[in-house]
């Protein structure tokens, strides 16, 4: 444990952000801590995913090491770091924690979603049942919503699939026309489904109960280099990870630009090809800082 | 019918000349020219123009003596005493050259560069063109000119003139300034019901297919003016390897969808790629292999849809742009050889690198010990973040930066003192 703490980089006093990134400050992030290892001192390697349950559980997809690492976060302090290593999950890219405590992870090698029990044991694969069309399913990303539905971004079928807890397809939404490359989806607390088009830097929305995606905003190319992940908070704010730009931008629920924070780099507080992010209700932001091989913690506020 | 046509033409010419004459008279009044001065006064000084007007094709305002149609005889804010900006002067009369909402427009026309093709006074070539025939087009489209000249199998309309298929100004409904869309343009000459055509296409009903997915309309070195790289089943006329039989109810339908179809022949490649930790996502998408490759024929090696810079840049625009703006060019990128470092199908590591280690990857071209003796490798920790070891990308960004040597800082000192902070001044 001591070794783990010793390997954690302490709170950074100053955040190095280029002036360009401060052009709009509708929200702010402040670095808290960086984590580079598990509880035994085993270093993280190209972690791409991170998920939190809103209470204290934090799961990191330690992609380069082919494992998940589970921490607990309490009183602004990160503890634990136990390894979950399974033969069924050798290259975790993205991870989610369900309200039941079950852990879901997208395996890049098999391109399947793996379901784990809360204790980290293998529970099975999420293979959609009742899919229409002759092609199979290739999940690029997924979400587990508050009701336990699993939403899969299927790039092979160019659609979003909504599954129930048993894996049966409940609903299917086709990608919008003229899309470029859809990298991520999100389900808002209001039940809207968002899609992120990395090529055109566009967010699409299918309002709750509607079957068609429409652009939520104009292209965000002026604010994003190459976005790959999006997330919403309980108030409907949209956060988009700019993978190639090493930054995070925020949009209002209507798609209006709010601000851009963070910048590309190696020093503490900077990001290099960030992957997944998660946000606790208290405003702690966890970032899988892939190419810096670390997990970074920030406070996020407006 | 001929009499009627000539009557209509005469009427049109008469109307045009009347309008231009009226315009000339307007200008004569506007500048209070002496009676009979219009069209003669200017030429008294501009002696060279006296010779110009002897050319067979003279611009109508000049022909009618209306120099003031384009020039202000007294003062102007524009060069050559033009009555308007050079880029806009022609559009004062020729406003409909580019139709509203045109699907494609010749860049030079859209930018008002009319005089790059037309002489505003007179020329020996019809339409006042500065050169005749394809020579005019190939003056700018040099690569096309060279290709057309050397290809083994020529497309006869190209020899007749680019304007056989293209409109020189704009196309209201078609891309590439084409006079009609493909295949309508092609079937105007190539009768699809002729036995020779049917046989050449293995009895497949291709009349409504896009001809340019296989054929290079500007000629090629392959018989049938197929693009120079031909997919083997096409070259061996075995369309039914991928498509259903020509006699079936849906002959153009492919036998399988996505990568499943390609896997039938390219199983080794597909299995290798799909066995990697990271597969290039487009390969897994609905388009599959066809995200990047054409199924029939292509100008590019490997049946790529476009040259690598354009193709890769269609998604990774930021990366290509960064290289274009970079002060130092990375040769594999500037030459469009993205595959020198990246495996476009799949890899076990990040960035789809061909090698597991960045140092090994860069080392395939760069001898580190000659380039630098800075400690590198797994055992050398990066002082900026103890989670990292020092490797080439610790200091360089391989696609370039706005500074020299791919470094992300303006000076080497600034770069080095990121880690060696004690030397910071």
From TrEMBL, chain A:
NHL repeats lie at residues 41-74, 271-301. PROSITE patterns: NHL. SUPFAM superfamilies: NHL repeat. Keywords: Repeat, Signal. InterPro entries: 6-blade_b-propeller_TolB-like, NHL_repeat, TRIM-NHL_E3_ligases. Gene3D superfamilies: TolB, C-terminal domain. Pfam families: NHL (PF01436). Residues 1-23 form the signal peptide. It comes from the Bacteria. Transmembrane segments: none annotated. PANTHER family: E3 UBIQUITIN-PROTEIN LIGASE NHLRC1-RELATED (PTHR24104). This is NHL repeat-containing protein. It comes from Geomobilimonas luticola.
TrEMBL record, chain B:
The keyword Cell wall biogenesis/degradation does not apply. Keywords: Signal. This is Cytochrome C. It comes from the Bacteria. SUPFAM superfamilies: Multiheme cytochromes. Residues 59-96, 106-144, 155-194, 205-226, 231-269, 285-319, 330-370, 391-424 form the Doubled CXXCH motif domain. Gene3D superfamilies: Cytochrome C3. PANTHER family: DISSIMILATORY SULFITE REDUCTASE SIRA (PTHR35038), SURFACE LOCALIZED DECAHEME CYTOCHROME C LIPOPROTEIN (PTHR35038:SF6). Pfam families: Paired_CXXCH_1. NCBIfam families: paired_CXXCH_1. It comes from Geomobilimonas luticola. Residues 1-24 form the signal peptide.
